[in-house]
Amino acid sequence: MSEWRVYLSGEIHTDWREQIVSGTEAAGLPVSFSAPVTNHEASDDCGAAILGGEDKKFWYDHKGAKVNAIRTRTLIEKADIVVVRFGDKYKQWNAAFDAGYASALGKSLIILHDPSLTHPLKEVDAAALAVAETPDQIVKILNYVIHAEL
After folding, report:
1. Lowest mean pLDDT: which of 12-21, 62-71, 84-93, 99-108?
2. Can you tell me the mean pLDDT for 68-84?
3. Is 9 exposed, middle or buried (0-12, 13-18, 19+ CB in 10 A)?
4. DSSP string over the chain
């Protein structure tokens, strides 16, 4: 495989994605990355902004979720590896959904979270092929699976 496609899902409040991208670039790994829309406001507002406003919050969110799903489903389906990051500050139900979707598609799934989340994420972790605690571990996993070297 000449280039590996990695989808980076989950928490949007820290720079974990940038750390993984820069780490793989520094290692010279043949990886291309994709991700959901990480601009929170754009992600929340896209459905109503594009398709028209809604009086009820449920339908406002429903439209946005469906428009965002076009991107996330397509990119997860195209990915060779899906990395899902769970942060400790917010409940990322969408990240859990992405992990489940990737698992159902048979994608190679790597979960990234702090050890304090091990118990609440035990079912998600059980579906993963690896559970990492740092972005650097993700880079090392990618290096190993691509080059078969430690």
Report:
1. 84-93
2. 98
3. buried
4. --SEEEEEEE--SSSHHHHHHHHHHHHT--EEEE-----HHHHHHHHHHHH---SSHHHHHHHHHHHHHHHHHHHHHH-SEEEEEE-SSS--HHHHHHHHHHHHTT-EEEEEE-GGGTTTTHHHHHH-SEEESSHHHHHHHHHHHHH---
Distance CA 60, CA 15 (A): 29
Is the pLDDT at 14 greater than 70? The verdict is yes
In this predicted structure, what is the pLDDT of residue 1? 60
**How far from 112 is each of 31, 47, 49, 74, 126, CA to CA, in Å?**
18, 29, 32, 22, 13
Q: pTM higher than 0.70, yes or no?
A: yes
Question: Pairing relation of β-strands 4-10 and 130-132?
Answer: unpaired
- Per-residue model confidence (pLDDT) at position 89: 80
* Contact call for residues 17 and 95 (beta carbons, < 8 A): no
Handedness of CA 116, 117, 119, 125 (dihedral sign): negative
